[in-house]
Structures are given as C-alpha cells and as structure tokens.
Design a protein that fits this description.
The structure is a single chain. With 217 residues, this protein is mainly beta. It contains 1 helix and 12 strands. It has one helix at residues 2-19, and strands at 24-36, 41-52, 57-72, 75-88, 91-108, 111-123, 130-140, 143-145, 148-161, 167-181, 184-196, 202-215. Strands 1-2-3-4-5-6-7-9-10-11-12 form an 11-stranded mixed β-barrel.
Length: 217
C-alpha cells in the first residue's frame, strides 16, 4: 500500500510540473544524514540542490554540519555551519553561514507542532556580511492508510534581514511525509515562494520538492 501511495504521489508530482510549468520554477531536493551521539546530542550532515527549470541546470547548492542538543522534552538547541554556492549569470557566488537554533516541539492531541528559530551570520568573501533571523512553523498529523501511516504537513517560513531590507522572504509548504522505518523518511512537497524585489514589489514562484532523511543509528 505504501508503494502504491508513493507511486501516486510521484505521478502527481510530475503531472503538477507539466500542468503548472508557468508557475513552477524550481525542483528542490534535500538529503540529510544524522547520527545520535548520545541521549542528548545528535550530529547531522545535510545537502540541498535547486534545479532551475527554465535553465535546465542546478543553480544553487549547499552542505551543512549541525550539532543539536536536547534541553528538555519540548526544547532543543543547535549550532551549524553551512557552505552555499549560488549561480550568478556566468559565475558562482560563495556564502559561509554560521547558525544557531532554538527549536520548540510539542503535541496538541494528535497534532505535532514545531517552531524553529534561527539566527544566522552570513559571510560573503566578495560582498557585505549580514545577520538574518529565520522562523519556521510546522504542523503535521498522522493518517492511517491500511497498514501504513502518512504525515501530511503545512509549513510557513519567514526570513528577516537585520538591516534595511528587513522582512524580505516568506514561503508556504504543503507536503506529505512517509516514515519508511526508524532509519529513513521521505517527503514530497509543493511550496510557494514570495520574495521582495529591489523596487519593493513582491514576486512569487512555485517549487516542487522531495527530501530524504537517513538516521544512521
């Protein structure tokens, strides 16, 4: 049954890509690998790729390393370093990002709620450095489908630069997650990206994505 659900979602993914090609500008993929060091500390490695459809090429890539620490059943913190490459017309720009997190998570009956707060220092070898605040709120709930459980979710992201640009980017995600086992999870999503332009107008585009998460122990 789980394989059938995955097949339906995959077909829906590519059907949406074809039907909404004027709005969907990117395909995103994130892969993560985590290793639990002990009861309170987890080390993870993540990589993300953006594929731009009109260019038929990858124009964004990052890797990061994250060390998280559980404070209580509902609260955790993390420190991370991220290295980003972004295509700018003919060359690639580089960013080094140093990040600290405060994450809250709790249950309201059968609904899972997660709130992530992140403060980043963005260091550009050939540009002006910047601080940025990030907020992510996710709500999800389990649905039993025969012998399998799937997790639909809704996520809202907000990005605020701590300079004159201020609030400049937001995204809304609708997705569904499959937990194949304790060691692996897979999800598909559609997102709408809204970004402030130089003239202060807002531009938007659609994103189709899929993520893989591996827990190594």
């Amino acid at each position: 049954m789980k394989f059938f659900a995955l097949l339906i979602l995959t077909l829906f993914f590519f059907d949406q890509l074809k039907a909404d090609e004027n709005n969907v500008a990117y395909i995103w993929n994130t892969n993560s690998f985590s290793y639990k060091l002990n009861d309170k500390n987890t080390l993870s490695f993540n990589e993300k790729v953006h594929f731009k459809l009109d260019q038929k090429a990858i124009n964004f890539y990052y890797i990061d390393f994250n060390l998280s620490h559980t404070l209580t059943r509902h609260c955790s913190t993390a420190l991370a370093y991220r290295r980003l490459l972004s295509k700018q017309t003919t060359n690639w720009s580089v960013e080094n990002r140093f990040m600290s997190y405060l994450n809250l998570h709790w249950k309201l009956n059968f609904i899972d709620l997660q709130l992530s707060n992140r403060l980043s220092y963005q260091q550009y070898p050939q540009g002006k450095d910047n601080f940025r605040y990030y907020n992510k709120f996710t709500t999800s709930f389990p649905i039993q489908v025969f012998s399998s459980t799937i997790y639909p979710y809704l996520t809202e992201e907000v990005f605020v630069k701590l300079n004159k640009e201020n609030f400049h980017l937001t995204r809304t995600y609708v997705g569904i997650r499959f937990r194949e086992s304790k060691q692996m999870a897979l999800d598909f999503f559609f997102a709408e990206n809204f970004q402030k332009q130089v003239n202060l107008d807002w531009a938007n585009y659609g994103i189709l994505g899929f993520n893989l998460a591996f827990h190594l122990n």
